[in-house]
Amino acid sequence: MKQAPKHFTRILRLIATALFLSASSLIAGSSNDKNVLIFFIDDLRPELGCYGVDYIKSPNIDRLADSGVVFDRAYCQQALCGPSRISMMSGMYPHTSGVMDLWTPLTKAIPNAMSLPRYFKERGYKTFSYGKVYHHTRDDTGSWTELMPKLTVKYANPATLQGIKDRVAEGEKKGLSIDEIRILGKGPAVESADVADNAYPDGQIADKAVESLRKHKNERFFMCVGFPKPHLPFAVPKRYWDLYERDQFEVPKKVRPEGAPSLAFTVWGELRGYRGMPKDGLLTDKLTRELKHGYAASVSYMDAQVGKVMAELNRQGLRDNTIVVFWGDHGWKLGEYGTWCKHTNFELDAEVPLIISAPGFAKGERSGALVEMIDIFPTLATLTGGAIPESCDGMSMEPILKDPSKEFRPYALTMYPRGSVTGFSMNDGRWRYTEWIHKPTKEIKWRELYDHKDSSVSHINEASNPEYASLIASLSEQLNSRKLIETKPLRKDKKK
Ligand SMILES: [Ca+2]
Q: CA 322 to CA 440: how far, in whole Å?
């Protein structure tokens, strides 16, 4: 008779302990019940207020930076939307996954790839994709609880839209080819319209994320919010253009670095394709200022959308239980070297903004550690109490989030293919060293060495300077020890 009440008391105590633990984990937020919110930003240079830049207005991102760690030396794996996003989402280098072009979706290269959304979905999270997350909205569709359809509207001015419509109709009437009609259908590189934020896709994406946070506030979620700006065209509401004076924008020196191989550059066809852009030659100072103005306005417009989503996260009381990652898919050249856009191995294209705000970790601090975008997946795995999948090439940045003074990688790796030659490039914290390797013969065709001690712009390729021979030998040895060119795409399809 004595045993029953004792047993009963023990059960009661266990229930009480369980209740206490679940309540305290709700309050303190144990590692495995954290939500994840990731902002994917298209073509954003690490030039924001929180990066010490005073000519860009980014109050909302700066506020996010105050609640986390700003990474001063973060690098993408390839300066191209598709492969960069896939390397981040799979945690695999482009030369491991085999995705080095814009046309291959992750799930075509690796049908059972362990992607970030799949990883979280399999762990019971609700997974949401709003806006431009993967380059292809049809990629990895099975990993999402909800996937917002692609938004294709680029302009808001009725005259611009009508002009495009008229030119396309005219082209069809003349029986022009699809490619010729596509060129006619291109709009201008810039637009300033006096419209609401959600007249353009970024505003609609923010609205969708806000609505979803309200709806799913009581569920554990993994939410990806991808803003298309500041990608071309720089078409954003007028009030964001009004934040800047045209004259404040400086025109960079339009000179290529001395001794740089021509293969390192592009003809920046992406920009030239827009209506009214010169088909060859350098841009005038006037046009350079207009485009730089448009880029800055686009950053501020995107920043306002980040602010809306963050405000809702706060309003719903989710801020202390949500890990927030803000990253850009690659850098961009705004007239430096007389060039524009991405698609190269230059420092300006390889460097990206990265902010991680994780509850219980460092706040308002900076890290000078070299990190790669393939490190985001392992970081989110360990921060949420999960194991790092075997398929991941990266490492968890959790030690940096605990102590931002910690060192991490000896160098960050970036690559860009040019036909039979691939450029493998590394930044060791000061120098950018690149080898262009002819794949069939493994012969090094060109080398580049730039000093980025004080700036992301460097005007001399020092690769043939005897003064740096031993430095080059050491960097080359490190690069070649990775056997990058021998690496066959592994087609890893292991489950976690
Ligand atoms: Ca991009």
A: 47
Q: Which domains does the chain have, with CATH numbers?
A: 31-156+195-409 (3.40.720.10)
135 CA → ligand 1 middle, Å: 8
Given 135, 216, 231, 293, the catalytic residue: 135
CA 29 – ligand 1 centroid, Å:
34
- Of 384, 372, 363, 278, which Cα lies nearest the Cα of 84? 372
pLDDT value for 26: 41
DSSP state string for 302-316? HHHHHHHHHHHHHHT
Which of 76, 81, 341, 392 is catalytic? The answer is: 81
CA 226 – ligand 1 centroid, Å: 11
Structure tokens, 138: 């049809």
Give 496: exposed, middle or buried? Use CB within 10 Å, 0-12, 13-18, 19+: middle
Which residue from 338, 154, 289 is spatially nearest to 233, judged by alpha carbons? 154
Q: Quick one: tokens of 424?
A: 């493998």
Report the separation in Å between the CA atom of 329 and the middle of ligand 1, taken as the mean of its atom positions.
5
Query: How many residues would you count in the chain?
Result: 496
State the Cα angle at 331 between 326 and 332, rounded to 5°.
135
Q: Give me the phi and psi of 133, to 5 degrees please.
A: -105, -80
Side-chain-facing half-sphere of 360: CA atoms under 13 Å: 14
* The pLDDT value given to residue 239: 98
Is there a catalytic annotation at residue 341? no
Successive 10-residue mean pLDDT values, the chain, 496 residues: 42 45 42 91 98 96 98 98 98 94 93 96 98 94 95 93 94 93 93 97 98 98 98 98 98 98 97 95 98 98 98 98 98 98 98 98 98 98 97 97 97 95 96 96 96 98 98 96 70 42
Q: How far is the CA of 171 from the centre of ligand 1 (A)?
A: 30
Q: Is 459 a residue of the active site?
A: no
Residues 6+ apart with CB under 8 A from 138: 105
How far apart CA 373 and CA 327 sit, in angstroms, is 9
Give distance in angstroms: CA of 83 to centre of ligand 1: 10
The two structure tokens encoding residue 196? 């609401």
Reading phi first (left if > 0) and then psi (alpha if -120 to 50, else beta), residue 482 is in: alpha
Ligand 1 centre and the CA of 79: distance in Å?
Answer: 8
pLDDT score at 484: 82
Output the CA–CA distances (angstroms, integers) from residue 52 to 46, 55, 366, 468, in the order listed: 10, 9, 11, 31
Buried b (16+ CB within 10 A) or exposed e, 346-356: bbbbbbbbbbb
Side-chain-side CA neighbours of residue 388 (13 Å)? 19
What is the CA(82)–ligand 1 centre distance, in A? 8
